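Narrative of accomplishments. A recurring question from our advisory board has been how the design workflow behaves on a single, concrete structure rather than in aggregate. To address it, we present the structure tokens for one chain from the evaluation set, followed by the sequence designed for it. No filtering or post-editing was applied between the two.
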């Protein structure tokens, strides 16, 4: 906000460009849109940025350009994205590059706002801890507390050499930074990424929802306090009340870094996912309206019976443009089946098979078989102009089949409760079976039946 407040020219500025790892440029885009009416904010960033963060930036309406090379280029490296953004702005009055790496409004914002807010809430403060990225936060806060309360120990945290945490930089990369950070810092700690992610995870699980840079800051604070404790100088930090009032900055959220937590930390940090194999199957939607009661046989799929007899279900006639797919075994189909139905026996189903929604391995096997079966274009094309009813022993496998068929563009329903429901409703009959009713290969699914 501070950087845009003085630099945006209402008559000229139409585009904001900034090299940023994410949070800064997202904030810029919102402030530019809401406070300055600028819709076009462009983010320059490393090609090593996680997909989750890229999607987050797209979500907030940013125009993204990726750059190769180091993920944290030196601010004055002409080959990096920071200087590319700077050059772009130099060639057009309509483009503003706030350039957080060189803009004094960056660190002065923390003298203007962040420092006074902290001091108002905790005037007893003894230790202040912040990470070093652009160094703007620490420069501003360190400068502010150096004036209002010089006794505050100002701790800056850098990434360990050769390591990376989103946002902060290593001490070596701070060399070219021109902000007066050296005068604003008393102590420097170096923190590695596993400790940063681990402590962030612990904080989140205790209700302080924050990202790896926040865990990074707290780890730096813990390291400094531990060193003081071992050296016997910890008490020197205490205030008149004998307590050490410490402040560390929670400067990010964990959500865009979720994948990195699993990369950086050991599997023991996370509970395993039970039935994880189901994440790769049963991928299509379900709808309660696709599960039909036995009444549907008489209202949607069969012509009204001529008379009510004990052999009712053996005498009814299948309507044109309707198809009944029976998924039971060939043996059970031959014993009794609905008139005009087509038998597609599944390898993964018999009368003793557990229900797919109670046994994950059954669901996996049945879904994979149904997906393969109905991926046959010829078989599916024959069903496209028909209303399909899938039926099985208890209804659940037919429900899975309906989900797959609907995903392939077929109007399909399942019979809730399957053949067991027909038995429960006393609709099961031992009527004769037409000689034209037979079992069919799943490779070629006919839909025209003669009765």
């Amino acid at each position: 906000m501070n950087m845009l407040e003085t630099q945006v020219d209402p008559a000229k500025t139409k585009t904001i460009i900034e090299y940023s790892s994410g949070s800064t440029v997202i904030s810029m885009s919102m402030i530019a849109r809401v406070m300055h009416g600028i819709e076009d904010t462009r983010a320059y960033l490393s090609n090593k940025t996680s997909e989750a963060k890229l999607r987050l930036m797209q979500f907030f309406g940013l125009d993204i350009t990726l750059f190769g090379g180091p993920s944290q280029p030196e601010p004055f490296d002409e080959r990096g994205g920071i200087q590319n953004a700077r050059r772009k702005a130099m060639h057009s009055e309509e483009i503003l590059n706030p350039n957080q790496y060189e803009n004094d409004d960056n660190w002065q914002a923390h003298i203007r706002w962040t420092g006074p807010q902290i001091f108002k809430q905790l005037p007893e403060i003894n230790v202040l801890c912040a990470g070093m990225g652009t160094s703007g936060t620490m420069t501003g806060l360190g400068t502010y507390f150096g004036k209002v309360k010089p006794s505050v120990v100002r701790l800056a945290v850098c990434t360990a050499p050769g390591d990376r945490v989103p946002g902060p930089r290593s001490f070596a990369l701070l060399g070219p930074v021109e902000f007066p950070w050296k005068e604003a810092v008393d102590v420097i700690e170096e923190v590695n990424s596993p400790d940063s992610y681990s402590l962030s995870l612990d904080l989140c699980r205790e209700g302080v929802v924050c990202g790896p840079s926040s865990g990074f800051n707290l780890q730096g604070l813990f390291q400094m306090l531990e060193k003081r404790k071992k050296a016997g100088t910890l008490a020197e930090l205490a205030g008149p009340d004998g307590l050490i009032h410490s402040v560390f900055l929670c400067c990010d959220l964990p959500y865009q870094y979720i994948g990195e937590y699993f990369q950086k930390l050991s599997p023991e940090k996370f509970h395993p996912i039970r039935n994880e194999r189901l994440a790769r199957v049963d991928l299509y939607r379900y709808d309660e309206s696709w599960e039909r009661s036995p009444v549907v046989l008489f209202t949607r799929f069969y012509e009204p019976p001529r008379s009510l007899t004990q052999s009712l279900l053996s005498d009814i006639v299948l309507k044109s443009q309707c198809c009944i797919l029976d998924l039971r075994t060939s043996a059970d189909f031959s014993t009794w089946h609905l008139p005009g139905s087509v038998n597609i026996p599944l390898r993964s189903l018999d009368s003793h098979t557990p229900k797919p929604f109670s046994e994950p391995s059954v669901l996996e096997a049945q879904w994979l078989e149904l997906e393969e079966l109905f991926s046959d274009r010829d078989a599916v094309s024959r069903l496209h102009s028909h209303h399909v009813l899938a039926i099985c022993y208890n209804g659940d496998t037919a429900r899975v089949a309906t989900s797959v068929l609907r995903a392939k563009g077929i109007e399909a329903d399942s019979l809730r409760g399957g053949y067991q429901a027909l038995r429960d409703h006393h609709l099961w009959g031992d009527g004769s079976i037409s000689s034209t009713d037979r079992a069919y290969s799943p490779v070629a699914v006919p839909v025209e039946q003669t009765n």
